[in-house]
From TrEMBL:
PANTHER family with a match to the protein in the record: L-THREONINE 3-DEHYDROGENASE
Biological classification of the source: Archaea, Thermoproteota, Thermoprotei, Sulfolobales, Sulfolobaceae
Protein name as catalogued: Glucose 1-dehydrogenase
Residues of the Alcohol dehydrogenase-like N-terminal domain: 27-140
Residue intervals of the Glucose dehydrogenase C-terminal domain: 144-355
Catalytic activity entry: D-glucose + NADP(+) = D-glucono-1,5-lactone + NADPH + H(+); D-glucose + NAD(+) = D-glucono-1,5-lactone + NADH + H(+)
Length: 358
């Protein structure tokens, strides 16, 4: 079968034939891949820049891909032929309590594996076999945008976690929702857009910041979902007021964290999701003390598991109805698998999500 293959820590990517026996499989449901999504992580691996990328034991190459949509070809368990499914991409270490309870997002050994990233073959191949426990059913009517459920699952987990942590204070507003809470999202890429949609769905006031004017598409999206856009090219001082949530959805230099910390409200949350490939930041003792006196929580946010994929599917179904213009704009290009090396090697202007079709 054809697969998209990389050699971790060296640059390059190729579409080549692999033997069914030499790639990893994980269960008895045969899934034929319909499409894959690509994101910054895939591109970092292809550029040889992702230090945590690793091939499965015993070889130097890896099947790429952690965002996938497929159709069941050989049924097993609750999965029937022709069911459209999405695989959960991070799998547990098999040792710690969190992993054993289906929450590899909180793995305690750090020995989890990630499809197409570390120690586990990914989903950019014609077909593979999986365990029902790692498959999520795609509801009817959202097949065109369902690929977004993978990145969105990470954000569902993130926003859930922020809300959970804030149970430490009286955080809901006098209408019982979060409508009086202000969230600042740093970055207006696919992650910035998806997390803004999610925060709006939870009634937060949302301001999205990037160091340039918004594109026409961004303008239309933020208008429809009711988020404000802020050009942060000259810093954040013109932003009025403080924020209850600041969510870093960018790969901007770490100094951006230094710049925005003063804008955190009392009892606020700084959500760390996006990271630059390198760089340094400094926090003085006084600044740390100020954060501490303000009761700020700094949360490391990564990875969604099956419950979050399911929530992501529900939100995508809802958003197709409430924000149809936005959901129509999120997939900016679909290419055939032969063009995959090209789209994996560089990012197009105005790109939001690119899909590879098998
Ligand atoms: Zn990704
Ligand atoms: Zn674990």
């Amino acid at each position: 079968m054809k697969a998209i293959v990389v050699k971790p820590s060296s640059k390059g990517v190729e579409v080549r034939d692999v033997n069914e026996k030499e790639v990893q499989n994980f269960g008895r449901v045969k899934v034929r891949i319909i499409e894959n999504g690509i994101c910054g992580t895939d591109r970092e691996i292809v550029q040889g820049k992702m230090t945590s990328a690793r091939a499965p034991q015993g070889r130097d190459w890896l099947v790429l891909g952690h965002e996938a949509l497929g159709v069941v070809e050989e049924p097993f368990g609750e999965f029937k032929v022709n069911d459209v499914v999405m695989p959960v991409n991070r799998r547990g270490c098999g040792k710690c309590n969190n992993c054993l309870m289906g929450r590899a997002d909180h793995c305690e050994t750090g020995e989890f594996v990630e499809a197409g990233i570390s120690d586990m073959d990914g989903f950019m191949r014609e077909y593979y076999y999986d365990d029902p426990k790692y498959l999520v059913k795609v509801p009817k009517g959202i097949e065109d945008i369902a690929i977004l459920a993978q990145p969105l699952s990470d954000l569902e987990k993130s926003v859930n976690e922020i809300i959970k942590v804030q149970e430490r204070v009286y955080w809901t507003c006098n209408d019982g929702t979060f409508s009086c809470r202000r969230a600042l999202v740093i970055g207006s890429g696919p992650i910035g857009i998806l997390v803004s949609m999610l925060l709006r769905s939870h009634s937060f006031q949302v301001i999205v910041a990037n160091r340039r004017e918004p594109t026409e598409i961004e303008d239309q999206i933020f208008q429809e979902i009711g988020a404000e856009y802020f050009n942060s090219a000259k810093g954040y001082t013109e932003l009025k007021g403080r924020f209850d949530v600041i969510f870093n959805a960018s790969t901007a230099p770490p100094t951006v964290i230094e710049d925005i910390i003063p804008f955190l409200n009392y009892n606020g949350v700084l959500g760390l999701f996006g990271f630059p490939p390198s760089g340094e930041m400094k926090l003085s003792f006084q600044e740390i003390q100020r954060l501490s006196l303000k009761g700020v929580a700094i949360l490391g946010l990564a990875n969604g598991q099956k419950p979050h994929f399911e929530e992501a599917m529900r939100h995508l179904s809802q958003w197709k109805i409430t924000w149809p213009k936005t959901t129509n704009k999120l997939i900016t290009r679909t290419v055939h698998v032969d063009e995959a090396p090209k789209v994996l090697s560089f990012k197009e202007e105005n790109e939001i999500k690119v899909k590879i079709r098998w």
